[in-house]
Amino acid sequence: MARILLVIALIGIVVVYLWRRRRAAAVATYPSTARTNAADLLRLPGARTSILEQHVRLWHRLPAPLQERLLLRLDEFLERIPFTGAHDFIVTETMRTVIAAQACIVTLGHEHYPFDDLRGITVYPDEFVVEESAEDEDTGVVTEGSRTLSGQANGSDRLVLSWRDVEEAQLHDDGYNVVIHEVTHFLERSYPGGDPAAHAALTAAYESLCAAVDRGDETLLDPYGAEDPSEFLAVAAEFFFERPADLAVRHPMLYVLLRDSFRLDPAGWAPPPTAVGNASS
Q1: CATH number for 244
Q2: Mean pLDDT per segment of 10 residues, for the chain of length 281 residues?
Q3: Alpha-helical runs (H) found in 87-228
């Protein structure tokens, strides 16, 4: 009787083992919905690279060692930073990857992970309206109003972005990049200080742009950079990454200043592609 029970038990073990192997093979051949969601697929080797090749212009310009560093930092960024769609806007994994990649490219010259203070990214489908109030220092009068924005570094721990503007930056070679702009604001607020000589050089470049705008001159940099030194830095960073050769020719001292600050030299990278694909899907 004991032998019969032992044989039955052994047969049962074998049956369960074979059933599990067959089930595993079936799952591998016909993946379930849970196994094939976008997040899981993007963890497969080469999946993120495919998105970068299709939808991020700057990826094509990066030297191979920086591409490798970007992939590592991108994984950490996406693992740690939550994305939220405003007003039920659905942020896809492709959108997250496109935004995160550009945010990380700005930081590739530095070894440490610089986003410890970033708590999240909110994405609107298009431009968004923010309510603001400003107090006149001389009179104490408070003026309230609203502004339509394409991006915002909200405090020092959250970025707010218009997806339409993020996507359009990949389709044109005009020096505009809302992700780079807002990430520069975030880094400036998260890591204040710096070399006094660099600050003096940046102030001189800012004042030069202000003077050119006041004269009505045509400028390479967006005149919005004349708003204040912080906006000037963010606008200059956009051109540093998007149109580095032009910036190096028109504003060589500013280019060197940004090159030393970001520890990157994009003027020496490959030329950009004409355009990349639509990433809304």
Answers
A1: 3.40.390.10
A2: 39 39 35 42 72 95 97 96 96 97 97 94 95 68 79 89 96 93 94 81 95 96 96 97 97 96 96 75 56
A3: 93-105, 163-168, 178-190, 196-215
**Residue-level pLDDT at 21:** 42
Q: Which of 194, 175, 186 is nearest to 235 (CA)?
A: 175
DSSP state of 138: T
pLDDT at residue number 191: 81
Predicted TM-score (pTM) of the model is 0.80
72: which 2 tokens?
């590592």
The domain of 94 spans 39-268
**DSSP per-residue string spanning 219-265:** -SS-GGGGS-HHHHHHHHHHHHHHSHHHHHHH-HHHHHHHHHHHT--
Residue 172: which of 164, 182, 161, 184 has the closest Cα? 164
What total of structural domains would you count in the chain?
1
Q: Rounded to whole angstroms, how far apart are CA atoms 209 and 204?
A: 9
Residue 18: inside a domain: no
pLDDT on residue 82? 97
End-to-end Cα separation, the chain, in angstroms: 64
Q: In what order do the strands lie in the sheet with 120-124?
A: 83-85, 120-124, 158-162, 151-154
